[in-house]
Amino acid sequence: MSVNFPRRPDVVTILWQRNLLTPLVPTIVEATVIGSAKPCKLNAGEPLIQAGICLLSNRFVLVSHIDLGIFGISEYVRLF
Fold it and tell me: In the prediction, which pLDDT does 78 show?
């Protein structure tokens, strides 16, 4: 008899920052992935909005968004 365990969720945490010259365009400083973020690319220096759109379009849910002014943290989870 085989036991099917549920798949673990994918978790993405993004540390982002605002450039003082272009404060409306936060960019990724670092991204940490538990599981997979495929097909999304989470490269440092890339706009946060592009990563967010990709993650949301691929069944991730934004569970936390903390804005600390110049820096912030966004966390996404994908359940199967």
Answer: 96
- Give me the domain span that covers residue 54: 13-78
Domain assignment present for 4:
no
CA 45 to chain centre: 14
Number of domain units in the chain? 1
For residue 72, the model assigns a pLDDT of: 98
Does residue 39 belong to any structural domain of this protein? yes
CA–CA gap between residue 76 and residue 53 (Å, rounded) = 11
